[in-house]
């Protein structure tokens, strides 16, 4: 057969999933991404939580990120940086499976995979829908995580912490911060997904599988989204750790606006920026790892034979 008559190999359309591509594979890719992201960056997340506590115990007072690391290492030992990691490992897998599964479904329904064009509205809607679904599952695990991260926490395990919180504060303690979490994560995720899609298409117009592009786009998108949503993260931390506070005002905080007023009264507007630096430092590599892991797993499953 002449060279001109040869049938070209079909182009590998990485982004567009085939109609018989199972949702389970997307969810498995998402679970892999979530566990990888949260496990690797957990120590920085612990530092962020401790720096956001309004009135920490004496041993939990830090002058900055470097001081926090050295103080924890010197007094409590390096293992403390991983205290509570079991909560995110158990919760992050299922939550991220739901997260990316919802993302792909809504993106398809919203027309985000119609052509090679840029679809920011579809990306934003997909991201917002994904975070609403996944946070409903992850919020209790996040509460447990932060209760175990706080300096002086008496909680030794995931189950012991969960039982104690439920016994002393009731089921509502696991979801008191959920509305605030959504107020933070919906704009965070919508912003992140739009930024990720935009940066990815700019860096990689052909939308081929490119780990470098996924890593850079994920990191930059996450850093930008983390910075603008830090104030709500501070409010969320107050609500999720209020049961450990010595202040009666903080212990009785009810909802987003009440918590925000407490922060404003005690620390001024600057109080809403507490922990911004470690939040950005942790989020940038976290989202880079998350997107790179997800796209890698998705590409792997895409090449596997479908049953």
From TrEMBL:
What InterPro entries does this protein's entry cite? MCP_dom_sf, MCP_transmembrane
Which keywords does the record carry? Membrane, Mitochondrion, Mitochondrion inner membrane, Transmembrane, Transmembrane helix, Transport
* Domain of life of the native organism: Eukaryota
Topology within the bilayer = Multi-pass membrane protein
rRNA-binding in keyword set? no
The residue intervals holding the Solcar repeats read 21-109, 118-202, 209-300
Q: Is Transmembrane one of the keywords UniProt gives this record?
A: yes
Q: Which GO terms describe its cellular component?
A: mitochondrial membrane
Q: Tell me a Gene Ontology molecular-function term this record carries.
A: ferrous iron transmembrane transporter activity
GO BP, one annotated term: iron import into the mitochondrion
Cell location: Mitochondrion membrane
Q: Which family does it belong to?
A: Belongs to the mitochondrial carrier (TC 2.A.29) family.
Protein's name in the database: Mitochondrial thiamine pyrophosphate carrier 1
Q: Which organism is it from?
A: Penicillium citrinum
């Amino acid at each position: 057969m002449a060279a001109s008559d040869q049938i070209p190999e079909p182009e590998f359309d990485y982004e567009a999933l085939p109609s018989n591509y199972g949702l389970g594979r997307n969810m498995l890719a998402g679970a892999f991404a979530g566990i990888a992201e949260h496990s690797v960056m957990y120590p920085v997340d612990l530092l962020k939580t401790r720096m956001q506590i309004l009135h920490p115990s004496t041993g939990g007072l830090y002058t900055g990120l470097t001081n926090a690391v050295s103080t924890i290492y010197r007094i409590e030992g390096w293992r403390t940086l991983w205290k509570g990691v079991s909560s995110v490992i158990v919760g992050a897998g299922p939550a991220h499976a739901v997260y990316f599964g919802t993302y792909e479904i809504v993106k398809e329904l919203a027309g985000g995979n119609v052509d090679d064009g840029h679809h920011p509205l579809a990306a934003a809607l997909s991201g917002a829908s994904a975070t609403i679904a996944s946070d409903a599952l992850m919020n209790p695990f996040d509460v447990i995580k932060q209760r175990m991260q706080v300096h002086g926490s008496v909680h030794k395990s995931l189950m012991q912490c969960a039982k104690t919180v439920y016994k002393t504060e009731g089921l509502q303690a696991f979801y008191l911060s959920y509305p605030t979490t959504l107020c933070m994560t919906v704009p965070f995720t919508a912003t992140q997904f739009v930024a990720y899609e935009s940066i990815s298409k700019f860096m990689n117009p052909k939308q081929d599988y490119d780990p470098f592009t996924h890593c850079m786009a994920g990191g930059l998108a996450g850093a930008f989204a983390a910075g603008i949503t830090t104030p709500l993260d501070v409010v969320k931390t107050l609500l999720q750790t209020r049961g450990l506070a010595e202040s009666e005002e903080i212990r009785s905080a009810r909802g987003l606006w009440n918590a925000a007023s407490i922060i404003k009264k005690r620390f001024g507007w600057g109080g809403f920026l507490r922990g911004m630096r470690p939040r950005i430092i942790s989020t940038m590599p976290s989202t880079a790892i998350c997107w790179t892991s997800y796209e890698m797993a998705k590409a792997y499953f895409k090449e596997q034979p479908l049953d």
